[in-house]
Design a protein that fits this description.
Length: 385
């Protein structure tokens, strides 16, 4: 009996060692892979994960286009948090006093959603959606060039739409601390206050989106949306489907926009493909040591089983001579096995991983029929499964 106990203890120690090493190795590799993926996605720049969407806005159709873009992005990104900004520029307007000039200096109206977070107000306040007059803010450099100041009211005449005459009140001046930020999308007019092409344009006069939609889309305009997803919560298994949906974003926008033309530019599918490959390599690297440990554990069990069989051959022969049949010997072996298996099965029914989850995270027991809900610091021993 002492020899039996020694062999059984050796077998249990071998199984415990192999299982512990396997669980630790798999858990370590999984945590390292998840943390590396999370950091890579958290540090991603707009150039690698951001999306730029361009489209033409028909006359008085800005609100409808915004709704189509929002619906398409929700279908593509689903639960991923998004930072969305929109910029739209109107047709050109002639600066005051140059209406009859053959080569006048021009300006334009623009709207930027979220400009308050990326521009610095140097004087006055941000515009409001006033029903009585059009309120706007100007880049400080443009205001200096056209000699405009806070509370000045300017009358601007449309260059394309001759019937369009707008009285605008300057309520604030601003500058751009970081002109290279993706938010501005290389719009030199708003970051420098002047744009010199065939005509010199100063401005723009930045108004609220609802004001722009109501007063400055009568002849149509071009809108641009920037989308910056927060991918820190995306799991490795969701990267592939997300990349596929972004790859087919053109079709999604076309279906939701009833055939309207949208231009989608992004490198997110390339990044998701690279990360999927990296995760696959990391998991494949784990396969070799896992197989080695499994083979080692299996060989150890076979060796212990052979030693036990040799050790008990004499006992079995003695039982056979006393009249015990094969069925009785089989039942005896089954009973001995159950003495080892049943305690593990009972204790394993309510393991911490299944029942309690992470410390401090309340959740219900995953076992069907268990109604116990742990508190803020759950302990598995409290679960009466």
């Amino acid at each position: 009996m002492a020899g039996d106990r020694t062999l059984v203890l050796a077998a249990c120690a071998t199984a415990l060692f192999a299982t512990t090493v396997l669980a630790a190795l798999v858990g370590y590799t999984g945590s390292v892979t998840r943390e590396g993926l999370r950091r890579t996605l958290a540090d991603a720049t707009f150039a690698s994960v951001g999306t730029t969407i361009g489209t033409h806005v028909p006359a008085n159709g800005l609100t409808e286009v915004q709704g189509e873009v929002d619906q398409s992005l929700k279908q593509i990104y689903r639960d991923v948090p998004l930072a969305i900004s929109m910029s739209v520029r109107s047709d050109s307007y002639t600066l005051p006093g140059q209406e009859k000039s053959d080569h006048p200096e021009l300006t334009a109206f623009e709207t930027y959603t979220g400009i308050e977070k990326h521009a610095r107000l140097t004087e006055g306040r941000w515009p409001a959606a006033s029903a009585n007059e059009v309120e706007a803010v100007l880049p400080a450099a443009a205001a200096k060039a056209i000699k405009a100041d806070v509370d000045d009211v300017l009358t601007l005449h449309g260059r394309v739409d001759k019937k369009s005459v707008v009285k605008v009140r300057v309520v604030g001046l601003f500058d751009v601390p970081d002109p290279e930020h993706y938010f501005w999308q290389d719009d030199r007019l708003i970051t420098t206050g002047v744009e010199k092409l065939d005509y010199t344009t100063y401005g723009p006069f930045v108004v609220r989106p609802e004001v722009f939609a109501g007063k400055f889309t009568g002849t149509g305009s071009d809108a641009r949306f920037t989308v910056m997803p927060d991918l820190r919560g995306v799991e490795s298994g969701d990267l592939g489907p997300l990349g596929d949906r972004v790859t087919h974003a053109d079709d999604t926008f076309k279906d939701i926009g009833d055939g309207a033309q949208f231009t989608v530019v992004t490198k997110l599918p390339e990044l998701t493909g690279q990360l999927n490959g990296a995760v696959l390599v990391a998991r494949s690297t784990m396969l070799i040591p896992v197989i080695q440990l499994v083979l080692l554990a299996g060989c150890a069990w076979l060796l212990v089983a052979r030693l036990l069989a040799d050790h008990r051959r004499g006992e079995v022969a003695l039982l056979r001579t006393r009249g015990m049949g094969m069925r009785q010997l089989a039942r005896l072996g089954l009973a001995e096995g159950l003495l080892i298996v049943l305690p593990a099965a009972v204790l394993g029914r309510c393991s911490p991983a299944r029942c309690c989850g992470s410390p401090g995270t309340p959740r219900r027991c995953a076992r069907p029929g268990c109604g116990w809900t742990p508190g803020p610091s759950p302990r598995c021993g409290s679960c009466r499964c």
